[in-house]
Design brief:
Chain lengths: 603, 609
């Protein structure tokens, strides 16, 4: 038990060291400067608060010459100005350099994210641990450094002030001890209480935030007005806030109690008792100088204050460092595989899927079962079947986004798991069900890079036109900046938000622009109107003359043009063949097609 | 965004803070007052300790007071501190606890009100932005109003006490903290303004950098990032925004640094560390008008005044934010409630003709009409299809029919009456709708179908409705059945539905009402469904429609073919209307669309082209 606790502590400390290492590599100067500035500032406060007070008190008591005192005050004030200048420069430098530090750290995050396997992104805890936590992680790391800076400065300040105290009466230092103990004990207890309070409140806070979103996000506005759902949401919110009040009551009572005890004890032991001791010393030693002792009462308060501050800052740094864990495990993640020896051929050839089974991590059953499919180069293949039959999983396997659980997928005769993913992916053009547009100019959303010359800009336009985006492009040229129009309003009011059908056309334009060896279309036309759909397919087929095309569609009319159709059910191929042969077979495909087409036949 | 750019007068700010405090006081009279009192006790206790008591101890130490008496003084000092600490901690924690509950209560009223606003107010960007901000800030600003007004009162009391003390001993010393305060107010406000502007700029820039890096580790973007070269432009964008932030830091940072330096040198070095000690030492050593105890207590009092005044500076900045928040919050008092709460005729007929007469609609602020001169007559029990290209205005029409907006010109009538004559809720009760952008809610599956508290429908009804929407197989896989929590928002065990599954749940909402409403409206109800599910859905829809009117929008013309009448929309206008056969015979837009879609479904492709 104890050992485990110790291990935990070592890890925390390691996180602190780890984060400091990151910051150090990012910008040595600002790290050093931060410590230097804070220490200089605080060390100076020792001179002012402790030393000068003692000096003035003594001067007054002994009626020393006023000029001497003035000289010292003036000299100290001049030094103080210098300290302020250092602080001002630091303030400026921090603003200028903080972005560099963030850039340095996030560049590592970005590079690392590119090497992490796709399947990791789909695991539920990936989102919780990284997506949500990573930004906080970096911010906390930065705050951790600042807390450490304060910690160091506070410790040094307390030590410096102690020297002054020891000079007057070493015994006075005894009175510093209680504040250390009190701060340690109560800092820990209170820290835990606040942590538990936060922890217990997490879920209810999330409910509160969710309900809030439901009421202000536009997408819910219509349904909120038409259904009674708002009563359910308000109930949830009430429940959550009632819980929050209970949780707060439970912990805040304790927090109030401990806090009270902490500060009452502090006042008693760090203010009352030393004063009593001083009174006793002064009154029992005739002729002793009162002034230094009075100054020492202030000094003990000062030292105790800094020590409890230091301990609080230490605890704070530790708390921040806990969040660094997420960043660290992200950056220290090693992909299962990083060496790929087979060079990817110039153009990809046949696809062989042999005895392939696939099971998602953590699932009990196979999503795909012993599949055998051979796709010749240049063939047009359709995967059809119900929602959830495994079609999308299959194309993801072909693209190497997942690794097969059993069997082998070969492209151009070589196992695809031996191809370097980046190289391999370059040969695919894809439109997914859940494609994304990026908050970048339209041209970059099509070309997926910055267009470098006029030819590339022309390619963007041509691709958009082929993808049935021509009319909209014309409008964008009139109202916005044509292919340089920024998409989405993510961070720019001038950005354009496109409808579902329009964004789908952009996804399709990407394929036209890329001119890949293998085209994969996963329900590319679900949001398109019939005319746009028809034209898109016509164009796609023209483009794809000598390319391998794999597509998934619920509109079986599009499957019909395929050279070969695979009907999937529960992760297995149950029928395959051309449209005609499958219709002749009269099986499930034929039934599905008839169902869908009956209304299109002339009566 | 218009964040914080708006300015309101000082009078209005005070009024606004008062408004928020009034809201809180209506829920609990005592929390504001008790916190003010507790904080005042705390500050006064501390100031008294630092000044009066310290002076007394020092005086007693330097004169011939016996030790026992001094110890009594020290005991009193400690008692004073202990009491103020005790009162403060007890009250503060109790207040925070209560404030949580009150915040929740105020938020609920705010939400309820927001759901009564006209939907069109969402289209006014300025109004919408301030609505969102008010909602987002309510968690911090409502307790913030209590806290900061208490701090303001407490600090003011502290200043009065320490200021009074200084005056009784030597008014001249009072000049320094007051001068410091004045300089502080001028420079601090300038600094705060610069920092706010910097923050605003930074926020804007950060949105760009945050976005450009976030996409790299957000699961939904992973495929594109891996499969395409988009990483590069995103990285460039990220680096650009970092550089922009550094530029902004330069622009504001230099000014802030200079102003801070002036502030520190005058307020701290000159007035506090030079003037006060020098003046006190002068009086004690040269003039010999004050004693050592006076020096210590005066120095402490001067510092207290400076610190409390400085505190007030920060409090005022916070209260300004509270005022701004309240300004946004109060805008809802004025938010239009034309539609949602409209009261009129409650008795909406069960059967009636739905008629659209010369109707046009323009979105607020839009240049062009979304719908122009629409005329439609729908008899009770008719099945009507609306087709047309993306963006032809179909969804807008549906929203007008539901009275989510009011028409700009012309009218919509039901049973011979303008729909604006009915009580809105009574009219909408006659309609059930499935939107194109239907939403799932983080609550039980049953609630996601019934969509209301204490719904009159039984579990059996809900199960049946889900069955008609082809959801039975999926329901069978759910361990907790209808009580399964949808979404993972708050429940790790929650179920995430795929697009097709969610659509089925949305359609089940309509089936649940089982023909009770007079009109069912469906906006592309099957876009994410596989052919078999789509077929099931259509069959069930027709079988269960009973005598109710059905209006549906679809891109799949096979589903609209059997409609009693089809309206073809283009660019906000009806371009063709009639039955399928009539429209085919017309040989126009509809026919073109139908044939394109039917092309590959025909028995013989060659013939069809």
């Amino acid at each position: 038990m104890i050992k485990e606790k110790e291990k935990g502590k070592i890890k925390e400390r390691n996180n602190i060291m780890y984060m400091m290492g990151l910051l150090w590599k990012a910008d040595k100067k600002i790290v050093i400067f931060s410590f230097y500035k804070q220490i200089a500032e605080q060390a100076f406060s020792v001179i002012f608060t402790v030393y000068l007070t003692q000096y003035i008190f003594t001067c007054i008591e002994q009626q020393s010459p006023f000029e001497e005192l003035m000289k010292l005050i003036i000299a100290l004030c001049l030094v103080h100005v210098v300290v302020h200048i250092v602080s001002a420069v630091w303030n400026y430098q921090l603003k200028r350099r903080q972005p560099i530090i963030y850039k340095h750290i996030y560049e590592q995050v970005i590079e690392k994210s590119l090497t992490i396997e796709y399947k990791r992104f789909e695991q539920p805890d990936f989102y919780d641990r990284f997506t949500r936590a990573l930004s906080e992680s970096v911010d906390r790391g930065f705050q951790m450094m600042l807390a450490l800076v304060y910690f160091a400065a506070d410790v040094i300040t307390a030590v410096l002030a102690s020297f002054v105290v020891v000079n007057v009466d070493p015994f006075l230092l005894v009175f510093v001890v209680p504040s250390v103990v009190i701060s340690f004990i109560f800092g820990k207890i209170l820290g835990e209480l606040y942590y538990k309070l936060d922890f217990d409140a997490t879920r209810d806070n999330r409910v509160g935030a969710y309900v809030k979103r439901v009421f202000y996000e536009k997408k819910y506005a219509g349904e909120l007005r038409l259904f009674g759902i708002k009563s359910i949401m308000l109930d949830r919110q009430k429940q959550a806030y009632d819980n929050l009040v209970d949780i707060n009551r439970k912990y805040r009572r304790k927090i109030a109690g401990y806090n009270c005890l902490r500060w009452v004890l502090y006042c008693l032991l760090s203010l009352g008792v030393p004063l009593g001791y001083i009174a006793f010393t002064v009154k029992t030693n005739r002729g002793i100088s009162v002034a230094p002792y009075l100054a020492m009462a202030i000094a003990i308060d000062f030292i105790s204050g800094h020590i409890s501050e230091a301990i609080d800052k230490g605890i704070e740094a530790n708390k921040h460092s806990l969040y660094v864990k997420n960043l660290r495990s992200f950056l220290e993640y090693t992909p299962e595989r990083s060496e790929y020896n087979t060079p990817v051929p110039e153009t990809l050839g046949d696809i062989d899927i042999e005895n392939v089974s696939f099971r998602y991590e953590g699932e009990s059953g196979n999503t795909l079962n012993n599949l055998n499919i051979h796709i010749k180069k240049g063939e047009r293949v359709a995967f059809v079947g119900h929602n959830g039959a495994g079609k999308t999983t299959l194309v993801k396997l072909i693209m190497g986004l997942y690794d097969v659980s059993e069997g082998e997928i070969r492209v151009s005769g070589k196992d695809i798991s031996d191809y370097a993913p980046e190289e391999y992916h370059r040969h695919f053009g894809t439109v997914f069900q859940d494609f994304q547009v990026f908050a970048l100019p339209l041209a970059q959303n099509v070309l997926m890079k910055q267009p470098e010359n006029e030819a590339e800009r022309q390619l963007v336009e041509d691709s958009l036109i082929k993808a049935q985006f021509g009319d909209k492009l014309q409008k964008l040229k009139e109202t916005h900046k044509g292919i340089d129009t920024l998409l989405t309003k993510e961070f720019d009011k001038e950005g354009v938000i496109l409808s579902g059908g329009e964004t789908q056309k952009i996804a399709i334009a990407r394929v036209f622009a890329k001119n890949p060896d293998i085209v994969i279309l996963d329900e590319p036309s679900s949001a398109l109107d019939p005319v746009a759909e028809f034209n898109m397919y016509e164009n796609m087929m023209k483009l794809a003359e000598d390319k391998t095309v794999i597509f998934i569609s619920h509109r079986l009319s599009s499957a019909r043009v395929a050279d070969r159709i695979y009907m999937l059910e529960n992760g297995a191929v149950i029928e395959e063949g051309t449209h005609d042969s499958l219709m002749e077979l009269g099986g499930k495909y034929a039934a599905m097609f008839t169902l869908q087409s009956q209304n299109y036949q002339e009566n | 965004m218009t964040e914080n750019k708006e300015k309101i007068s000082i009078g209005r700010t005070i009024q606004n803070v008062g408004y928020v405090l009034g809201l809180i006081a209506r829920k609990d009279k005592w929390i504001v007052i008790s916190y003010m009192l507790a904080y005042t006790v705390f500050i006064l206790g501390n100031v008294a300790y630092d000044t009066i008591m310290i002076k007394r101890v020092i005086d007693q130490l330097t004169d011939s007071t016996p030790l026992s008496e001094i110890l009594v003084t020290i005991g009193l000092m400690f008692g004073l501190l202990a009491v103020s600490i005790f009162v403060m901690n007890k009250v503060e924690n109790a207040v925070i606890t209560k404030a949580v509950g009150i915040t929740g209560e105020i938020q609920r009223e705010f939400y309820a009100k927001s759901a009564r606003m006209d939907l069109s107010s969402y289209d006014d960007p300025k109004f919408y932005d301030s609505f969102v901000l008010a909602a987002q800030e309510s968690d911090t600003m409502i307790p913030g109003a209590v806290e900061n007004s208490a701090l303001l009162i407490g600090n003011a009391a502290g200043i009065l006490l320490s200021g009074g003390l200084i005056f009784t001993i030597n008014p001249i010393i009072a000049i320094f903290p007051v001068a410091g305060f004045l300089i502080n107010i001028v420079t601090r406000f300038a600094i705060t303004k610069l920092e706010n502007d910097f923050d605003l700029d930074k926020k804007k820039i950060n949105r760009k950098s945050d976005y450009s890096r976030r996409v790299f580790y957000q699961p939904e973007y992973a495929k594109e990032i891996k499969l395409t070269g988009i990483a590069k432009p995103l990285k460039i964008q990220f680096e650009e925004s970092i550089e922009e932030e550094r530029q902004a830091a330069r622009k504001y940072g230099v000014k802030i640094a200079w102003l801070s330096l002036c502030n520190w040198v005058f307020v701290f070095t000159f007035l506090s560390y030079f003037c006060v000690p020098a003046a006190l030492a002068y009086m004690a050593i040269v003039k010999k008008t004050i004693r050592l105890g006076d020096v210590a207590s005066m120095e402490n009092a001067a510092n207290a005044v400076r610190e409390l005044l400085d505190g007030i500076n920060y409090i005022l900045v916070e209260l300004q934010r509270v005022g701004l928040f309240a300004e946004r919050f109060r805008r809802f008092e004025e938010a239009e409630e034309n539609i949602e709460t409209a009261v009129g005729i409650d008795d909406v007929p069960r059967h009636g003709v739905l008629e659209i007469k010369n109707m046009s609609y323009k979105y607020d602020g839009a240049e062009n009409y979304a719908l122009k001169n629409i005329n439609m007559t729908v008899k009770a029990g008719e099945h009507i299809a609306i087709v047309g290209e993306n963006g032809a205005g179909k969804t807008t029409l549906i929203k007008l029919l539901m009275r989510l907006f009011d028409v700009t010109e012309g009218e919509i009538t039901f049973g011979g009456r303008d729909i604006r004559e009915f009580t809105t809720s009574a009219y909408r009760n006659r309609i059930s709708a499935v939107f194109q952008d239907y939403q799932m809610y983080a609550t039980s599956l049953a609630n996601n179908v019934a969509m209301e508290k204490n719904s009159p429908y039984t579990e059996e009804d809900i199960t049946k409705a889900l069955g008609r929407a082809d959801f039975t197989a999926r329901l069978g896989k759910m361990k907790k059945g209808l009580e399964t929590e949808i979404m993972r928002e708050f429940d790790e065990e929650g179920t995430l539905l795929s697009g097709g599954e969610a659509q089925k749940v949305a359609v089940a909402r309509m089936f649940l009402k089982n023909g009770a409403p007079a009109i069912s409206i469906l906006d592309e109800p099957s876009s994410a469904l596989d052919p078999v599910a789509e077929y099931t859905l259509n069959t069930n829809m027709m079988a269960n429609a009973g005598d109710s009117t059905i209006i549906f929008i679809s891109h799949r013309l096979s589903t609209t073919r059997d409609a009693d009448r089809i309206y073809m929309f283009a660019h906000g206008e009806i371009v063709e209307q009639g039955t399928h056969e009539e429209l085919m015979a017309l040989n126009g837009e509809y026919r073109n669309m139908f044939e394109k879609q039917a092309h590959y479904y025909k028995n013989n492709i060659e013939e069809a082209v």
